[in-house]
Design goal:
eight-stranded mixed sheet; alpha/beta; homodimer
Chain lengths: 431, 431
């Protein structure tokens, strides 16, 4: 059957908010914007198929400290506290998210790993974080399949998890309810839909960002445009010339495994281990599967989704050191993706100072533009905070604590005017 | 567009040969039968998706001796000699098969592996097989990425390879040319087609097998029916009551990997290794990828295609011992399948002695029925031999050398009459 009468073309769509990117960050922002009463259009040719698709979904501000990013701690803790409310909002639509408040066990393999965890614990306690050493016998009472050879164990009750694929699917479904409609519908409050196409660039009007040009020819006109397309953000046409988004891909491999019935439950807690100094984690999912991750490599494979044989080998090797039964699991999936890293491993989140092209007073921000990318390994944990901060900016609320993450804090290497280099954008400049 | 006039149903299809099973054995037989001037119908709901889909495709009678199946050697060598002609026949249709006559290197990891290879070599030389010890320096000159720590190397020039997926696709395509036609066409010599459906059982007429009842309701009437559906053969309805097909699944994991440009070619020869007594092989394909296999386990996972985490770990570990650069490869695919094993690890190949239900003289064979299954790890190597022997049987040629593989050589445990047990079917009985 053919449609004899083509639907009328809609060259322009109007919404309160345009979000470029349907990874977990873009989707979280879209969700929060709709909760605030705004209509939203999300633009992504392949929703939730990037780093979100790989992510294990640990909500672990305490054990993430391990990676020496103390500057991020305040943001991670704030986001952690937002999670229960954020999940309630998504789940009220009736879809599960795999959110679990089961604890995390930190486990070391050898004496050097025990010393490393001990040093870290001193830092964690000094910062007021909740972590408690567990006698090995107690750890193995709680998780009988842990190797008897582990060197130390710590209980971290506040580090939880979510299933990023289910969470993204739940938010996408709430957008999808509107995606089949005629696009001109998307003008009412709380309305939203997904455009399965690429953003080809930002639209400008009178020195302000006015929306998004979409590859399929549509123009999305919006009061606020959020650039949340991860690594691709740096290549978006129409960003302010002065802006550098120094994103780099940090590749990682991650495994999904099935647990045979006689080994269920394999674990009740998430296990985060150090094995001869290398981190590995094992996350037990609600559906009885487990996730083992994640390698971290900056070498460029043939594509972002190329799985490293060495990465998979190392994950299976180290996970078996902590939990020998891993050898008996069914390998369901090996996935690799690139995380968007930044020079200081902190996100690029906020408004952008207007340069020559802006209409605002010198030092003012570009109206209509918010950047939210560069979340590296912390995208899932930081989603509620990113969503809350972004919608706060739309409502004129600026939280001084987060200006240090402004996306214009790095000098643009392609603009070599001495003034720019000697006075790079810093927190103070924008306070 | 709808087809307003449904095609007339054909409750019966007539062909010279019906082949149940489109794995490499069934396809090879179908190919040979058509070359002999017979029309063929192949019946399989999922062609080339079982053990054939996993197989590495080594054509290696010499290095396969390692597995202590000397009884099979004569058949393996005979099949090996048939390969060039068999491949020519398939390739004449213009499709590639990945057939390569590059040599095989046998490589040991440690001193015990060297001793094991040395013992094996004595046997191989005594049997007149071509194998030559290589100085380690020469082995590494030929394959510079081999580990400097290997303990021994042997050149086996007669062990080659084919790509089973490409070979199966080439034969399927030649069948497929006819599969869209009206089924009544399939009566001419050399004609053939594939029915994408299950065989529900054998059809009998006057004590002879007269064809196949297909799950979609069709009856395939054929002068000869070949049972070549691997492990599923044992469950086929309508087999002679007296026949036991003692097939068991032997699971295996196998990996496909991509080689980054700077490591190409990773290898020029196929490498077969022993690493602390465990066999592992690395097969370089024409397209620049490599195949690493294969684990062997008889424990039952949740399904035949469930990949074992421990199996994948062991393959990656042992392959890296021989070829450290494996860590830098891209893991493209982890696959597991079940091979059809038998009590003596030899195939079930030939006609079946008629019992009470047969019309032939006592001790005669069931007319119209040939069994070809149980090829275990050797299905690909033995395909031309299986095809040649099967078509020979159709033409009344019996080769005494192969009667030892008759499918009725095992007693049926469910028929406990003493006569059957005290006089199990042996080679002599049928000679």
């Amino acid at each position: 059957m053919e449609t004899l009468q083509p639907a009328p073309r809609n060259p322009a769509v109007t919404a309160d908010v345009a979000v470029i990117g349907a990874g977990i960050i873009g989707l979280g922002i879209a969700h929060e914007a709709r909760r605030s009463g705004r209509s939203v259009v999300v633009i992504d040719p392949a929703p939730a198929s990037g780093a979100t698709y790989a992510a294990a979904g640990m909500l672990a501000p305490v054990s993430e400290l391990h990676y020496q990013e103390e500057d991020l701690l305040e943001l991670m803790l704030a986001s952690s506290q937002l999670w229960p409310g954020f999940v309630d909002g998504v789940q009220s639509a009736g879809r599960g998210t795999g959110y679990r408040t089961t604890p995390t066990l930190a486990v070391g393999a050898d004496a050097a790993d025990r010393r490393a965890f001990g040093d870290l614990r001193d830092v964690q306690l000094r910062l007021g974080l909740e972590i408690q050493a567990l006698p090995l016998r107690e750890a193995r009472d709680r998780e009988p399949l842990l190797s008897p050879q582990i060197s130390c164990a710590f209980d971290i009750p506040g580090d939880h998890q979510v299933d990023p694929r289910r969470l993204a699917a739940a938010i996408l479904e709430s957008l999808g309810r509107h995606s089949e409609r005629d696009r001109s519908w998307v003008t009412g409050a709380e309305d939203g839909f997904l455009m399965n196409s690429s953003a080809s660039g930002l639209l400008w009007e009178d020195g302000a960002v006015a929306g998004v040009a979409v590859a399929d020819g549509t123009r999305v006109l919006a009061a606020e445009t959020v650039v949340a397309n991860g690594l691709a953000a740096a290549g978006l046409e129409g960003l302010p010339e002065e802006l550098a988004l120094p994103l780099r891909p940090v590749y990682g491999d991650i495994l999904r495994l099935g647990v045979p019935r006689h080994l269920q439950p394999l674990l009740t807690a998430t296990v985060r281990g150090l094995v001869r100094g290398v981190p590995v984690y094992i996350v037990p999912r609600e559906d009885g599967t487990v996730v083992i991750g994640a390698s971290q490599r900056e070498d460029g494979p043939s594509s972002a989704s190329a799985v490293s044989a060495g990465g998979v080998y190392q994950l299976l090797r180290d996970a078996q050191v902590l939990l020998p039964a891993v050898a008996e699991l069914e390998l369901l999936e090996c996935t690799a993706r690139a995380r968007p890293g930044t020079p200081d491993n902190a996100p690029l989140l906020g408004r952008v100072r207007a340069g020559d092209s802006g209409t605002g007073p010198d030092g003012g921000d570009v109206p209509g533009l918010i950047v939210a990318t560069g979340f590296f390994r912390h995208g899932v944990l930081l989603t509620p905070a990113a969503a809350s901060i972004t919608v706060g900016l739309m409502e004129g609320r600026h939280d001084e604590r987060w200006t240090r993450f402004r996306p214009d804090r790095f000098p643009n290497p392609h603009r070599s005017a001495p003034a720019t280099i000697s006075a790079p954008a810093t927190i103070k400049d924008h306070a």
